[in-house]
Amino acid sequence: MFDWVSILPHLILAGGGFCIFCIGAFWRLRSAGLLFAIAVIAVFLAGAQTLLITPQAPHFSGMLEVQGYGRFFTFLIIVITGLTLLFSHQYAKLRNFAGDEFYGLILLAALGMILVAGAVHWLTFFLGLEVLSISLYVLIAIRKADPGSNEAGVKYFILGAVAGAFLTFGMAIIYAVTGTLNISKSLAVGAPAGSTSLIFLGLSLLLVGIGFKISMVPFHLWAPDVYQGAPAPVTAFLSTGSKVALFAALLRFASYASNEVWSHFTPVLWILAVLTMGVGTISALAQLQVKRLLAYSSIAQMGYLLMALLAVKQNGASAIMFYLAAYALMDLGAFGMVAILSAKESDLDALEDYHGLAYAHPWRSAILAVSLLSLAGLPPTAGFIGKFALFWAVLQASYVVIAVIGILTVILSIYFYFKVIAALFMRPAQRTVTVPSMALADRVAGGLILILIFLLGLVPAPVFTIIGKALPFLKIS
Amino acid sequence: MFPWLSLILFLPLLGSFLSLAFWRRPLSCRWASLLVALADFALVMGLLTLNLKGRIGATGKWLLAEDFPWIERFGIRYSLGLDGISLMLILLTAFLTVLCVLVSWKQITQRVGAFHFFLMFMETGVLGVFLATDLFLFYLFWELQLIPMFFLIGMWGHEKRVYATIKFIIYTIVGSLLMLIGLIGLYVIHGAQTGQYTFALYQLVQTKFSPGTEIWLYAAFLLAFVIKIPVIPVHSWLPDAHTEAPTAGSVILAGLLLKAGAYAVLRFAFPLFPTAARSSVPLLLVLGLMGLFYAAWIALAQKDIKRLVAYSSIAHMGLVVIGIAIWNMMTLSGAVLQMINHGLSTSALFILVGMLDERVQSREISNFGGLWGKMPIFSAFFLLFAMASLGLPGLNNFVGEILILIGTFRTWPWVAGIGFVGLVLTVIYILRLVQGTLFGETRNPRIKELYMEDITVREAAILVPLAVAVLFIGLYPGPVLNLFQEPIEGLMTLLK
Questions:
Q1: Which of A315, A318, A373, A414 has the most B C-beta neighbours within 10 Å, making it the best mutation to test the interface with B?
Q2: pLDDT 10s digit of each residue in chain B, 496 long?
Q3: Min CA distance, B490 vs chain A (Å)?
Q4: How big, in percent rounded to 5, are the helix, strand and coil portions of chain A?
Q5: Phi and psi for A60 in degrees, rounded to 5?
């Protein structure tokens, strides 16, 4: 007997998506407002369902974990999706892509992300990943007339397909060695004698595949181009939702992995984390285009998370979960503001165009500045508590050297975050930039992000309590 | 018990949001900020007159203390504590903030609401640094005060403001982020030792270290603090930040932020890492002396009055560092008193330079001269504060300097001797400043022709209280020093 209630959020999202597609296909009067409303309602219902109703069993048919860890990320991803929808409503309408495919695919991508984050079965994971990736390929290229958008879509598609191949091959090897598709069993049992190297190979391939998706150096090269080419709200969705989902999965795999296998991985991960932090930060320093700068910054942010992943066997998981939530908010804030500050013709990208913007558009600039301050890790924002937690996790697991390297990259990153803030608030405007006025949806989303960033920075205790309750679900059952 | 400390701490924040709410009406912003700042000042004065006695509470011995859980996952508490030292420093903070609002009354004409928002926000940040007794809370306020300062310099500063403010933020963040690592390290080590994970100062001072670890942690803390003070090789943000900042910004920087650095060395770095601190004393003495000489030497070459005053700050703070490093009853009293003194006299000089700048749009010494004839009252104030700054007996700085030097002479006579020579150099550049601006003929023909209004009522309202404070401490320092007695004895026992 299926416990339908426990997968209601998934069903609602899927249903909402198909409903939107059907309206698009069969009803001539497919107004953007109606489609938007359906999408928002679906997201809202799914969110309420996740928040209010505790599923009875921890797992759904051995495929999905829905009660603790999975539920935390389901809710986080639904929040991300909701904010993305709000940011993209006016943006999409102005640029004529507010059709059924846009809203439907956003819901489906969200479904994919939730499946990835909650998967305890390799097939669910693969299924979620494909749903997520295919939706995003289209979303990135949704401005059909814009060559940059198309180029970004193709780039993401080719690299995404390669990453998918790596992932599939990795899963296949793990399955071949252990004989089970259950993720925790296949990772925890460890390899039968003599095949440790095979397991190691399989996990490495998985790491490469996930590394592509979370833009881990050296698999990050697509990120700046795709982030720059994609429409800004889609970039926001891509850099928060898909990274959060994949990182949640990575954290789950790392927690399940047996200590023996994990001990082989830590040196590799150490190097990858240093590279990701270093390359992300140093590349961002010289950027004069804000979307590229934010792209590199999000690479560096992934580096901090990878660094904390080293401590996963020593209570590091709670710090990572908190930081993922904080990261999602502040990165959404940054890209979302870029989106709603952009004129119809092209996204607001050159740093020069941001000069003096705060005098004409104080609220949007303030929210952008708060998001950047949070990304830089200054109090009293969510990013500060998040950074503190990450470095706590790393230091209490005695990784002192990488903590110092990490903090040095944070120091460097201060420069480029403050460069943008200085441009917004301190330099006189150099050329006139047309900025559309804010729609109601934009105001709601911006206000929510502002409040949530400060709330998580000032009263983080409840979130840590929730995380504490979710953590036992990472243990092998 | 009513949370007086929290009220004092967060009242300015209310002022900052009020001025943001009134952003369309500049005058309302000014009045709202002024009233809130005055109310805060009145509250602190109230605490002073209550004549509180130290009580042993949950977090150690304080005149007033508050302690609530905040983030229990990490054992972080919201705990504040007030002793004689922090009482004087928050009094200085509240006082200077009132003056800052008054100083900016005419000078700031653009984006007034935002200006007062940041100014009052800043006050909360600085007060928090002086009151926090939980290290995490302290760190939070330590970083929090950076952001408003960044905007104050960058949005209302002079020509090279963006460069100056980015430089300021990078310098200070380098220190504070390395301190964050040190702080977490300390927390983890203490927790592993005692099984109790906490950031409470009174518990962390009992941590035992292996010598290697202690040096590194101490270095991380000390670096953050000496950048803020600033001590010689890491001082170069200060002249730029001071020169480019609006007057209120310079006053807060010199009067309060530099104090935060010295206060943190005194309250946190030395007591937390006593062994390492002991071994660093010679280094600190050398750096302090270098500051005294180097700054005096550079100050001699300055053309801009504001820059000259900025370098004089480095010299004065060099002496404070010496006082803290020697760590005896006398030098510590002197050092703390000198922090207050420097806050008063240097702020006064910055305010006077700001007034000149408002009148003639110039700060070059070579343009002035002969001001005594044009603006006698202004010049009298200028002379008074300049004399205070060079340590004339009867004025405030003299008391602090003499306490530090005598206290130093007992254990490190040659340091006291060299320090004395350094003070003589101070006399030279201050006298050069006084002579160049007040006396002789006005050198710039434009300024010579210009009618310059003498002190207005508003300006008198700023300068008179400062002058009274300078004279009071200079002539009758007893009550202030008595306030320091008990907390300094407490600090001394920590480092035996």
A1: A414
A2: 788 899 999 999 999 999 988 888 889 999 999 999 999 999 999 988 887 887 887 888 888 889 999 988 899 999 999 988 999 999 999 999 999 999 999 888 888 999 999 999 999 999 999 999 999 999 999 999 899 999 999 999 888 899 999 999 999 999 999 999 999 999 999 999 998 899 998 889 888 888 889 999 999 999 999 999 888 888 899 999 999 999 999 999 988 999 999 999 999 999 999 999 999 999 999 999 999 999 888 988 888 899 999 999 899 999 999 999 998 899 999 999 999 999 999 999 999 999 988 888 888 888 888 888 888 899 999 999 999 998 888 899 999 999 999 999 988 999 999 999 988 888 888 998 898 888 888 888 887 778 888 888 999 999 999 999 999 999 999 888 988 888 898 888 887 6
A3: 31
A4: 80, 0, 20
A5: -105, 110
| Cβ-based contacts of B162 with chain A (< 8 Å) | 422, 426-427
Q: How far is it, in rounded angstroms, from Cα A402 to Cα B345?
A: 45
How far is the C-alpha of B449 from the C-alpha of B469, rounded, in Å?
35
* Best to test chain A binding among B156, B181, B193, B227 (most A CBs inside 10 Å): B181
Q: Residues with Cβ < 8 Å from B26, sequence gap 6 or more? A: B109, B112, B113
Nearest to A80 by CA among A99, A56, A106: A106
Helical spans, DSSP H, in A27-68: 32-52
> Residues of A with CB below 8 A from B241's CB?
none
Q: How many CB atoms lie within 10 A of CB A401?
A: 11
Domain boundaries, chain B: 1-272, 280-496
Task: Name every residue whose Cβ is closer than 8 Å to that of residue B171 and which is 6 or more positions away in sequence.
Answer: B227, B234, B236, B237
Domain ranges of chain A: 4-474
Stated as kind and residue range, the H or E segment containing B71 is: strand B64-71
Task: Tell me if B71 and A373 make a contact (CB, 8 A cut-off).
Answer: no
Interface A-B, measured as beta-carbon pairs within 8 A, has a size of 85
Cα dihedral B156, B158, B160, B166 sign: negative
For A161, A244, A323, the CA distances from A212, given in Å and listed in that order, are: 10, 13, 20
- Across the interface, whether the CB atoms of B162 and A468 are under 8 A apart is answered no
What residue in A sits closest to B69 (Cα-Cα)? A461
Q: Contact B180/A391, CB-based, under 8 Å? A: yes
CA distances to A10, A81, A88, A243, B185 from A47, rounded to whole Å, are: 10, 10, 19, 19, 39
Strand partners, B130: none
Cis peptide upstream of residue A218 (ω within 30 degrees of 0):
yes
